[in-house]
Backbone:
């Protein structure tokens, strides 16, 4: 990893963010008619209390809709950098950034835990199958491969049907029981986990297959390497051979793939949140779409773009630090 | 296009067709896909109901002889929806796939073959499109489009589906460039386009086929993702939209399994068939994989 | 069935074949020899004669499509080919260590050199402290002229020559009775070659370690080997004290090998050997060298010669000597 690599990843990162901002900016403007205004008119007609004129004027100021396009864009960028993502229509006068802040932790919690669990379980399973291919291990692998071919909505809906409806072990949605009073923090934690279980499981079940398949292939090729033969010649224990010579060499190269599949899993998490009515950003985004709350839609979308591209960028930067082969190239 | 070229192309085609016949993955995938299309087609022909018109039939009916899959909460026959929806979903998916694939081909070949700064720019562009989460950007765009119709949706989806195959095809082009016969073709004075069309593409047809199946798969994933969130075409029915309506009316917890399960199964079968085709073409392209 | 006090390893009629779609490749086909305590035993032969397969077979590292088709490998009382995995693991590295042929990939790329030394010490239940390990390593590294930063480095940070020497360090760290060195000098420059050979000689003298030195370069064997074995097409052709074999090469092949090596300072005609080694899926009947041999009798094509002792400790397998 040298300077050119960092420079290139940085350029891609900045351009991705810029592209996201640009699309956010252009989308409502390229469509004939101003969807924001149309929407506001509709709401006003329906008698929704949206504080009409002041609201529109505030928006004209923020967006500078009366100014030439490039000035508007600069204003837009500067307000974004100041952390001002606008005001939500449906939750007026709540600011978009506050809405996001309230729901972001749920998404992060769900995403992080499921993504990492599915990575580790998947890679370890694949590594085990690649290391020693027993019938049992292969069957388990096959199950997960088939599962991974399903989609998020299928698994989510099936899980709800099976485990929240037919056998009501888990709740059908939400992140916590409404209006519940908790005795201790552990009770609260347990309630949260109980609610998060099925949504997380949806994400995990789909993800394992892909990682396992890749890990198995990698482990099979690692097994043929000279250093594994030497490990055998050294008379090392099976555990040590598997963990330090096999698994470590299988796990490390796959870390970069975490950045690549993140976009896909984030999209899936949005669907999962929606189906489970899990109050993360994805669910709020869904409601915003239904209500055509443009500021909120764009604010959350931007947040996702920022999150995914930044996470990917960070992974790309830190990977050389953990893999000596890349670090000392 | 002289006789020698035609014969050569035909010969390659016949080899490929023979491979397809021997390859059970591709056969299985194609059979599955064709059966799905036939099923939907026949369903459309025999059903008397309108898939979109609200209230055309009584709502929330369980499956019966009149309504093979029952009806939904908006008063529409579900079996009709399934058949129309399947075809529409496939339409959008394939349309988006074709457009996206063409973009990918152009970007990959222009960049890979001609190299230089043009290639650097195109590669960075590809990576930008790869790193940004597609569904999110699609949401931004689709939410402002007032009337989402099939061609518009397909184009929007295609605009983001091309990045991944473009990267892999470019890698193929790069490795092809190093091969002896390409070098010879250059020396014998053939133009870039000629080399690309007559020599490069025929040699990686199985790869291209495999990537095409992947693009269609990815396009359908984006499509269904958008539709489940409610951003699909409003005046026709697709499988994703079926799920959207099912969710809006809490079909899972109301035990209306005939509403949400059939579209899920149909989508699973479609993706499965695409996966089989892709895997089969992978094996033709890369015979080493056969052992697995 | 014990060995004489002086003998460390006895290989009897070892056969290692490779499965193919047609006939198996008889890579090692009835090889027998003894390695004594505290000696350097050279195994010489051209590429493909079965030397590396032999090395792997001794520690039972053979993996499919190769398989062991017979013979015994006796380390004191123990037949390594029949021992259970647990016993074998105790023998591996502690009694017999292996320096593999290609150093480029033999070290674990994601572990530091020091950790790769430590893990074999731990797994063989030798209770050395970290400090002791470092000291012992430094001792050996000095002899190999390896700088001290090597211990904390990853293999990718080291040059090819350094990796080869790191492997040597690794193989001697448990002070085994026998070290099998498979072409330790082939992939390195002449200076490193010299260092390595000197090191092996020192280890033999100071610690009494036996070394089985496998090489295609007969000059290298001539440098430090006490006894030498010439292999060809999976068979043993000649065994004996180095000096005796060089002064009086008995087998026609050995003679040809000697003649093929140019000697610095002496202008002599360097003669090669015509022909190619046989296809080991269908080796020639009779003596395997017969297609390329100059002095042929009818018997050579029909009957395989046995390994006979012609003079004291000097064995040859050729019909000339009966």
Residues:
């Amino acid at each position: 990893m040298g300077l050119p690599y960092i420079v290139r990843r940085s350029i891609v990162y900045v351009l991705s963010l810029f592209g996201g901002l640009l699309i956010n900016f252009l989308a409502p403007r390229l469509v004939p008619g101003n969807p924001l205004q149309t929407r506001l008119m509709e709401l006003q007609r329906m008698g929704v209390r949206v504080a009409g004129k002041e609201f529109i004027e505030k928006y004209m100021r923020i967006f500078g809709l009366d100014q030439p396009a490039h000035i508007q864009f600069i204003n837009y960028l500067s307000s974004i950098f100041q952390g001002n993502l606008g005001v939500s229509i449906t939750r007026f006068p709540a600011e978009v950034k506050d809405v996001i802040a309230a729901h972001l932790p749920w998404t992060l919690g769900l995403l992080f835990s499921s993504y990492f669990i599915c990575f580790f379980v998947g890679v370890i399973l694949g590594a085990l199958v690649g290391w020693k291919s027993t019938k049992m291990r292969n069957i388990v692998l096959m199950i997960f491969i088939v599962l991974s071919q399903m989609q998020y909505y299928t698994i989510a809906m099936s899980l709800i049907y099976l485990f929240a409806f037919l056998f009501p072990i888990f709740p059908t949605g939400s992140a916590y029981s409404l209006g519940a009073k908790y005795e201790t923090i552990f009770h609260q934690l347990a309630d949260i986990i109980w609610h998060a279980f099925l949504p997380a499981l949806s994400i995990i079940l789909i993800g394992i297959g892909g990682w396992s398949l890749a890990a198995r292939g990698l482990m099979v090729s690692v097994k043929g390497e000279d250093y594994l033969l030497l490990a055998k010649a050294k008379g090392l224990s099976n555990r040590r051979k598997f963990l330090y010579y096999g698994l470590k060499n299988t796990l490390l190269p796959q870390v970069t793939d975490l950045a690549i599949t993140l976009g896909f899993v984030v999209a899936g998490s949005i669907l999962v949140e929606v189906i489970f009515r899990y109050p993360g950003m994805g669910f709020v985004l869904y409601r915003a779409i239904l209500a055509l709350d443009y500021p909120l839609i764009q604010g959350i979308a931007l947040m996702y773009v920022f999150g995914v591209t930044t996470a990917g960028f960070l992974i790309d930067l830190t990977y050389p630090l953990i893999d000596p082969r890349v670090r000392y190239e | 296009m002289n006789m020698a070229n035609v014969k050569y192309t035909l010969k390659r085609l016949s080899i490929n067709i023979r491979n397809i016949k021997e390859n059970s993955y591709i056969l299985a995938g194609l059979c599955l896909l064709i059966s799905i299309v036939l099923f939907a087609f026949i369903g459309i022909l025999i059903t008397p109901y309108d898939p979109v018109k609200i209230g055309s039939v009584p709502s929330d009916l369980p499956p019966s002889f009149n309504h093979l899959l029952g009806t939904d909460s908006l008063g529409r026959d579900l079996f009709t929806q399934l058949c129309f929806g399947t075809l529409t979903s496939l339409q959008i998916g394939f349309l988006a796939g074709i457009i996206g694939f063409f973009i990918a081909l152009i970007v990959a070949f222009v960049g890979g073959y001609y190299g230089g700064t043009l290639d650097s720019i195109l590669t960075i562009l590809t990576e930008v499109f790869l790193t940004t989460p597609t569904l999110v950007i699609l949401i931004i765009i689709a939410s402002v489009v007032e009337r989402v119709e099939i061609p518009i949706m397909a184009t929007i989806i295609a605009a983001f589906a091309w990045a991944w195959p473009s990267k892999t095809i470019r890698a193929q082009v790069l490795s092809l460039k190093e091969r002896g016969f390409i070098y010879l073709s250059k020396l014998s004075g053939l133009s870039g386009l000629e080399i690309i069309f007559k020599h490069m593409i025929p040699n990686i047809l199985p790869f291209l086929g495999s990537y095409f199946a992947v693009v269609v798969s990815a396009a359908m994933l984006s499509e269904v993702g958008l539709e489940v969130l409610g951003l699909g075409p409003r005046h026709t029915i697709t499988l994703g939209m079926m799920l959207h309506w099912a969710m809006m009316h809490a079909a899972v917890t109301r035990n209306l399994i005939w509403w949400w399960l059939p579209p899920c199964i149909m989508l699973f079968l479609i993706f499965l068939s695409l996966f089989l085709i892709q895997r089969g073409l992978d094996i033709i392209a890369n015979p080493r994989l056969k052992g697995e | 069935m014990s060995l004489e006090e002086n003998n460390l390893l006895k290989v009897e009629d070892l056969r290692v074949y490779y499965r193919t779609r047609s006939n198996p490749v008889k890579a090692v086909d009835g090889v027998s020899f003894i390695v004594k305590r505290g000696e350097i035993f050279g195994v010489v032969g051209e590429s493909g004669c079965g030397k590396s397969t032999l090395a792997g077979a001794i520690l039972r590292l053979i993996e499919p499509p190769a398989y062991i088709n017979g013979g015994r490998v006796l380390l004191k009382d123990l037949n390594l080919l029949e021992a259970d995995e647990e016993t074998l693991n105790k023998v591996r590295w502690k009694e017999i260590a292996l320096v593999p042929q290609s150093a480029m990939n033999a070290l674990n790329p994601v572990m530091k050199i020091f950790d790769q030394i430590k893990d074999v010490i731990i797994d063989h239940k030798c209770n050395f402290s970290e400090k002791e390990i470092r000291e012992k390593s430094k001792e050996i590294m000095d002899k190999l002229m390896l700088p001290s930063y090597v211990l904390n480095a990853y293999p990718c940070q080291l040059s090819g020559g350094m990796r080869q020497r790191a492997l040597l360090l690794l193989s001697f760290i448990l002070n085994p009775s026998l070290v099998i060195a498979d072409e330790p000098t082939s992939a390195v420059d002449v200076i490193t070659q010299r260092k390595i050979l000197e090191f092996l000689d020192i280890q033999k003298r100071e610690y009494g370690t036996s070394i089985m030195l496998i090489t295609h370069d007969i000059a290298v064997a001539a440098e430090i080997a006490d006894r030498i074995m010439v292999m060809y097409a999976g068979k043993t052709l000649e065994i004996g004290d180095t000096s005796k074999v060089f002064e009086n090469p008995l087998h026609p092949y050995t003679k040809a090998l000697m003649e093929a090596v140019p000697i610095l300072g002496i202008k002599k005609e360097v003669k090669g050997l015509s022909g190619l080694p046989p296809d080991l899926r269908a080796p020639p009947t009779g003596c395997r060298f017969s297609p390329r041999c100059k002095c042929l009798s009818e018997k050579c094509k029909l009957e395989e010669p046995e390994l006979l002792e012609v003079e004291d400790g000097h064995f040859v397998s050729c019909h000339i000597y009966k």
